[in-house]
Amino acid sequence: MPRGFFVTFEGLDGSGKSTQLRRLKESLQSRGLPVTATRQPGGTRTGERIRALLLDSRAESLSPFTELGLMFSDRAQAIAEVIAPALEAGHIVLCDRFTDSSEAYQGGGRQLGSQVVRELHAALCSGLAPDLTLLLLPNFDRSLARARRRNERALAATGSDENRFEQEDSAFYRRVFDKYRQIAAREPLRVAVIDSDGSIDEVHKRIVQVVQERLFPC
Predict the structure, then answer these.
(1) How far apart are CA 178 and CA 175, in angstroms?
(2) Can you count the helices (H) and strands (E) in the chain?
(3) Considering 4, 45, 128, 170, which has the largest number of Cβ atoms within 10 A of its Cβ?
């Protein structure tokens, strides 16, 4: 059985990643293609516990290196438990965030640099790289405001508090944004930058076009 195809979604919080991943999953499944969708942090029982700690605004004393270590603990578990088996089974794997997020948020936002992130990836993730990364980059200010509103609604509705990163200032998010741009410039064959300021349908059509070109090049 041929290896599957690994697609990751990246971008600032509030960029529309989760919505677009869900839309792409539905589109691919409607064509009869096997799809596995997951997210980071999270996606496994262990990962969801790590996610609760990482994103809870009450965990404000975490050091940047602890944060990075937890991200990679989650990622290594997700690869072993979900991603690698699905790829071996020939599935298209859609993942909401992967190592690019660590490079952008911890390497850029926390100013740890790219080298430590890439070295941890090589050591803990067996060098697994996405076949395609869809980087959603909407307007900076609008994206951040949307993420904060979304998490406030989630807290009010469910009591789930995932606001820790949203409490960071604009300078932090500007560093994240700039690091994503650097990653895209460094790896243009893997990273497709998607202008996500259009409507949900417009962005979805662009994503489907990019994925189709990579999955079915002929």
Answers:
(1) 5
(2) 9, 5
(3) 4
> Cis before residue 41, ω within 30 degrees of 0?
yes
Can you read off the two tokens belonging to residue 148? Answer: 């904060």
**pLDDT value at 75 more than 60:** yes
Q: What is the dihedral of CA 109, 107, 17, 190, to 10 degrees?
A: 140
**Torsion sign over Cα 184, 93, 207, 173:** negative
Q: Which amino acid is at 1?
A: M
The alpha-helical segments, DSSP class H, found in the chain are: 17-30, 45-55, 64-78, 84-88, 99-102, 114-124, 140-158, 170-186, 200-215
Closest to 49 in 3D by CA, of 68, 73, 22: 73
Q: Residues of the chain with pLDDT > 90: what percent? A: 71
Helices 170-186 & 140-158 angle (0-180, nearest 10): 120
The owner of tokens 């944060």 is 67
Q: Taking the chain, what is the end-to-end CA distance rounded to the nearest angstrom?
A: 21
Q: How far apart are CA 15 and CA 17, in angstroms?
A: 6
CB 19 within 8 A of CB 138: no
Residue 144 in contact with residue 170, Cβ under 8 Å?
yes
Q: Which residues of 200-210 are buried (b: 16+ CB within 10 A; e: fewer)?
A: eeebbebbeeb
At residue 38, the 3 state secondary structure works out as: strand
CA Rg value for the chain: 17
Q: What is the pLDDT of residue 92?
A: 98
- Whether 187 and 10 have beta carbons less than 8 Å apart is answered as no
Residue 189 token pair:
């064959």
